[in-house]
Amino acid sequence: MPLTELAIKALKPKGKLYRVADSGGLCVEVSPTGGKLWRWRYAFNGKGQMLALGKYPAVSLAMARKLRDAARETLTTGKHPTREKKAQKLRNVFAEENTFEKVARNWLALKQSGMNEKYRVQCLARIEQHVFPLIGALPVTEITIPDVVRVIEKIAKRGTVETAKRMKQLIGQTFRYASQRGLCQHNPAADLRDILPSTEEKHHPCIPPAELPKLLKAIQSYSGERLVVLAMEMLALTFVRTGELIGAKWDEINWEREEWHIPKERMKMKRQHMVPLSRQAISLLNELHTLTGDKPFLFYSSRSKSRHISNGAVLMALRRMKYQGRMTGHGFRSLASTILNEKRFNPDVIERQLAHEDGDKIRSAYNRAEYLLERKKMMQSWADFLEIQKASDNNKVVKINNKKNCA
Q1: CA-based nearest residue to 133, from 96, 101, 165
Q2: H-type alpha helices, 23-80
Q3: SS3 state of residue 209
Q4: Is the Cβ–Cβ distance between 167 and 151 less than 8 Å?
Q5: Distance (Å, rounded) from C-alpha 60 to C-alpha 66?
Q6: 167 three-class SS
Q7: 407: confidence class by pLDDT, cuts 50, 70, 90
Q8: What integer is the mean pLDDT of 54-59?
Q9: Tell me, what's the pLDDT at 45?
Q10: Could you give the residue numbers annotated as active site?
């Protein structure tokens, strides 16, 4: 006869454990201490089995019957209900330990060794702000394509399409990390190319080459901090990225070989870079050494937490020189690339000196020849060219024959 709630409550403990049947193999087990546990009896491959369904009264009679019916459905699929229950517990624990936030943090920690620290911190701050509040607590196994789309579109609706694109990339990298380690079966951010509006590519402001002499003279006569003047002149001579310049350390300078070796950790492409130092660059470094030679950084600043001048120092100087919106530190790279290509220097040599990554991986592998001799000649020719521009009486770029003056 099926049990009732009243009958269950009336069950009293005895000297030994005993069971009272309900229906369909369900029974309640009463221990000598008075505890009551739901169990379901079933047979698997001809052998009797017993599945625990929870304690009474936390699990009511109605709930116990539902659990029994669910277990019976599992049995009809050919699965072992007891083993399946244990497996589900493990899956639940696995899911709790592998939320998107935990996986993303693990991925960033793994990438830390090969990632610029400033960039890593920036990535973490953005994903904490834009992504974790929405899907951070969800297991990676439960996140769907629509979930990711909602996150990306919500960011984009705030007017930050570029941030949305970056977050789409970070989410995709996190899921790729997770799927490679068996934490999930697919990457829901793998193919979301069309969910965001296309934006025009933004270029760093850069003056036309014809205005180069005027700019060089403006830098030379700038009345601001000497350290910043030297930084702008060094950018012009070496056309490295501004971040690579301001973080330069004295132990990176090889005075004997007249070379500046930038470690891969400070390079955008994570590849060690060598800058040949022209006579003009060496002269500039000698002056700079009298100012900061006893400090670790070339462009040391006691007012900065990073202990070197900031990107803003160069940008602010250019603004004060009336070049706001027309020239940036990165603009020196564009100028050098444009003029050197116009002078018909080997494009491979120019690109290598700009530390650009060759899009053709096979070609890049064969181009491990660093073009050292060609680059040294080019950098000296470039420095000589700048010197002529600076000394010219007019504000137009002096046309120099490549073969005669810049070979």
Answers
A1: 101
A2: 61-76
A3: helix
A4: yes
A5: 10
A6: helix
A7: very low
A8: 92
A9: 83
A10: 241, 268, 330, 333, 356, 366
Token pair in block for residue 343: 């002078």
Can you tell me the mean pLDDT for 73-98?
A: 72
Q: Using CA atoms in the order 292, 297, 301, 304, what is the torsion angle rounded to 10 degrees?
A: -170
Alpha-carbon gap, residue 327 to 362, rounded angstroms: 35
Omega within 30 of 0 (cis) for the link into 81: no
- Residue 141's CB is within 10 A of a number of other CB atoms, namely 15
Task: Count the Cβ atoms, other than its own, within 10 Å of residue 158.
Answer: 10
The domains located in the chain, with CATH, are: 5-87 (3.30.160.390), 100-180 (1.10.150.130), 209-405 (1.10.443.10)
pTM (predicted TM-score): 0.55
Give the model's pLDDT for residue 403: 43
Residue 19 has pLDDT above 70, yes or no: yes
Distance, CA of 299 to CA of 296 (rounded, Å) = 9
Helix, strand or coil for residue 334?
A: helix
H helices of 221-278, where?
A: 226-238, 242-246
**For residue range 149-181, what is the model confidence (pLDDT) as tens digits?**
998 888 888 767 888 888 888 898 888 888 888
Distant-in-sequence, close-in-space partners of 268: CB < 8 Å, separation ≥ 6:
116, 241, 244, 355
